[in-house]
Write a structure and sequence with these properties.
- By secondary structure, the chain is mainly beta.
- It has a single domain, classed as Metal Binding Protein, Guanine Nucleotide Exchange Factor, Chain A (Beta Complex).
- 8% of the residues lie in helices and 41% in strands.
- The protein contains 2 helices and 10 strands.
- A 7-stranded mixed β-sheet has the order 6-7-8-9-4-3-10, with no helix packed on it. A 3-stranded antiparallel β-sheet has the order 1-2-5, with no helix packed on it.
């Protein structure tokens, strides 16, 4: 299924191809918890930025591998490059304008990222 998504103000728009019924991860690390990010990690080939490249800014911390991408206008993070899958993209399901048929939320212990990251490594594979 092709989903359309955007930031709050609509400056950044994207599409992503994913199943009708989504299994997503809810991480308890500090950045995900504070921003309310719900994770849908997919191969980069399933993602397209439709509009807003110039409205994006990036934040990094710790190892610098994850590229947290935000809209400069409204501050929403609709997607980013995750540390667990740097060859993929992580979509914030809360930013999908097209809604999935169903969502199954899986808890992920990101507070203890180093010992749990391997559980996510397969998600960007074709």
């Amino acid at each position: 299924m092709k989903y359309i998504g955007s930031c709050h103000c609509g400056a950044v728009q994207f599409s992503v191809v994913a199943p009708e019924n989504l299994e997503i991860d809810q991480c308890n690390c500090s950045i995900c918890n504070k921003s309310g990010f719900l994770h849908l990690i997919v191969p980069l080939s399933k993602f397209a930025l439709l509009n807003g490249k110039n409205s994006l800014t990036t934040y990094t911390f710790n190892t610098g591998v994850a590229k947290h991408t935000f809209c400069k206008v409204c501050g929403v993070k609709p997607f980013y490059t995750p540390r667990s899958n740097p060859d993929g993209i992580d979509i914030n399901v809360n930013c999908l304008d097209t809604k999935p048929k169903s969502i199954k939320v899986v808890k992920f212990d990101g507070k203890n990222w180093e010992s749990n990251a391997a559980k996510l490594a397969h998600k960007s594979e074709e």
